[in-house]
Amino acid sequence: MKWLNHTLIAGAICAVLSPPHVAACVAGATAPDWFEYVAKLTGRHIKHRGPTHILTHWLIAALAFTFVWDYHGILMAFAWGGVSHIMTDAMTVSGVPFSPYSDRRFHLFGGRFRTGDPVEYAIAAGVVIACIGFSHLTGSGGFAPFFYDWSGLYQQGSIDGAEWKANRFRLI
């Protein structure tokens, strides 16, 4: 998948679950690719979708940061962003390595499309729309910097009628 779709999917899901962690999650959603560039700068050449794209490594990191130790959830969000990257790359024809001890590739839904296909953008759009819909249905009780409740702010008296009228149809 392209970076745009990785960031859209991870950012939308994280915005629904934990809005303050969106930046860390989006950074993690692109990390498996930019880790390759970091390795190249240190003189170590690794191929794309190689050691940085191993599903078990990202999953173990995400579970460890979720249940064992983390500082304010930042590393947890970063690791789950990496897991989302691996899962979305697994939908492509080339797939991702499941484990460093196996040469087999892991595919989701049969690995039906190539990177850059219109299906990739449709999946990202579907996830974003579903997350926006879910956020509006659940009416999150906390502060969500990306999804404002304009009618609620108007009813509380936090904004005036002109501001409500200007923003009432904005979803984001």
UniProtKB/TrEMBL annotation:
Residues 1-23 form the signal peptide. It comes from the Bacteria. The chain crosses the membrane at residues 52-71, 121-148. Keywords: Membrane, Signal, Transmembrane, Transmembrane helix. This is Metal-dependent hydrolase.
